[in-house]
């Protein structure tokens, strides 16, 4: 165990080596080749495109195939000091220092403690999966990170298996199709009656539910998982999991008795949450539901010289968890850090597309299930609906089309 002071070279410190963190580094280096940059990450810092994780299994792409450059290679190319396998344990916003703990997770005895000073700090630490108490982390997978994705892919490589996915949002629905295309049996469970029900109204989600069922995905709506337990299969040495769930009572109907489902793997797709430890330590304004609060034009937090970008931050009370705006966000932060004049970041909600061959779903604006949704176009092959705000203006639009067949 050792203690090290890394404060001799301050400059810019970026916490998090996901797409957001690397985009900030790219944006700074495009305008300044020499300003010191230190990248702190709990993993190896490898560069990869996270949205590919929901399509890679059926494409037979390994975790290594998705890596565009290792962390070491990318850091050398960008003239960045990389502190891999290092966790920021505390931020002192007054002295402008980060306290670090480093060492491989596999070797907890070997641990270094260090501090590093910063002139500017960028929080790009992302968000992590929510694991309800009914989904024990030691039994349930998530595919929010390439390391876990690689481990799951190894387990699935032995042949066709039965996989239960808990949560039918965008990610869960996309993973379901990917696994199905790879030859696995898939059961998709959700608290709501249909996929994407937290984003879209029932008229729209009913079409999505019908489409995924037509693919052969077993969708269990209005289902609440109460437990996931390991069971012994007397006929084989393979690990089996039992998923216990209840069908939620519909108004006027009696709730059914608890049911069970025996599967090979369970994947959690139950949403994301931002860890409040570092924002709280730094005195950064934080919302437990949406993440770090930033100024909409500069992406500065309320703490001096601290910025936030990507999954961990929110603008005007809305979490920013999409890839498309990252480049513009990074460019604004780079200009602000370097003292360049800039017009400020203008947030535009990206177009959201569900990656599914059975149905085309495109969403613009800020969708939410509840609200004044109006049908604009409706036919067997197409549904277009607008969400109107209190003043009658369109705040979101969903377009659902059946795929074109030859």
TrEMBL record:
Required cofactors, per record?
FAD
Q: Where does the record place the FAD/NAD(P)-binding domain?
A: 12-322
- Which keywords are on file for this protein? FAD, Flavoprotein
Q: Name one Pfam family in it.
A: Pyr_redox_2
Organism domain of life: Bacteria
The UniProt entry, under InterPro entries, shows: FAD-bd_OxRdtase, FAD/NAD-bd_sf, FAD/NAD-binding_dom
Q: Give the PANTHER family listed for this entry.
A: NITRITE REDUCTASE [NAD(P)H], PYRIDINE NUCLEOTIDE-DISULFIDE OXIDOREDUCTASE DOMAIN-CONTAINING
Q: Which family does it belong to?
A: Belongs to the FAD-dependent oxidoreductase family.
Q: What is this protein called?
A: FAD-dependent oxidoreductase
> Source taxonomy lineage?
Bacteria, Pseudomonadati, Pseudomonadota, Gammaproteobacteria, Moraxellales
């Amino acid at each position: 165990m050792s203690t090290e002071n890394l404060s001799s070279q301050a400059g810019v410190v970026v916490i998090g080596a996901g797409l957001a963190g690397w985009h900030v580094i790219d944006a700074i280096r495009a305008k300044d080749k020499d300003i010191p940059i230190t990248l702190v990450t709990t993993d190896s810092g490898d560069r990869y495109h996270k949205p590919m994780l929901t399509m890679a299994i059926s494409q037979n792409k390994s975790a290594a195939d998705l890596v565009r450059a290792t962390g070491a290679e990318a850091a050398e190319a960008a003239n960045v000091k990389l502190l891999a396998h290092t966790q920021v344990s505390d931020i002192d916003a007054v002295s402008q220092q980060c306290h670090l703990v480093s060492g491989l997770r596999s070797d907890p005895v070997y641990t270094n403690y260090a501090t590093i000073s910063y002139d500017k700090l960028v929080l790009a630490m992302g968000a992590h999966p929510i694991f309800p108490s009914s989904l024990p982390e030691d039994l349930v997978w998530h595919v929010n990170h390439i390391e876990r994705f690689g481990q799951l892919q190894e387990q699935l490589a032995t042949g066709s298996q039965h996989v239960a996915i808990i949560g039918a949002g965008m990610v869960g629905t996309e993973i379901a199709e990917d696994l199905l295309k790879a030859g696995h049996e898939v059961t998709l469970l959700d608290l709501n009656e249909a996929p994407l029900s937290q984003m879209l109204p029932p008229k729209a989600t009913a079409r999505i539910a019908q489409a995924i069922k037509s693919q052969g995905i077993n969708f269990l709506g209005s289902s609440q998982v109460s437990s996931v337990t390991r069971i012994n299969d007397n006929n084989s040495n393979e690990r089996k999991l039992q998923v216990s769930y209840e069908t939620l009572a519909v108004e006027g109907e009696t709730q059914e008795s608890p049911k069970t489902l025996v599967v090979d793997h369970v994947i959690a797709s139950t949403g994301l949450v931002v860890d409040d430890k570092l924002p709280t330590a730094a005195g950064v304004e934080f919302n437990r539901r949406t993440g770090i609060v930033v100024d909409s034009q500069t992406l500065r937090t309320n703490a001096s010289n601290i910025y936030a970008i990507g999954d961990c931050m929110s603008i005007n009370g809305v979490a920013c968890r999409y890839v498309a705006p990252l480049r513009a966000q990074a460019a604004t932060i780079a200009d602000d850090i370097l003292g360049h004049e800039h017009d400020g970041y203008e947030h535009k909600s990206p177009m959201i597309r569900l990656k599914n061959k059975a149905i085309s779903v495109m969403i613009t604006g800020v969708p939410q299930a509840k609200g004044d949704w109006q049908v604009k176009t409706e036919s067997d092959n197409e549904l277009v609906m607008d969400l109107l705000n209190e003043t009658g203006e369109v705040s979101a639009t969903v377009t659902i089309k059946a795929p074109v067949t030859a």
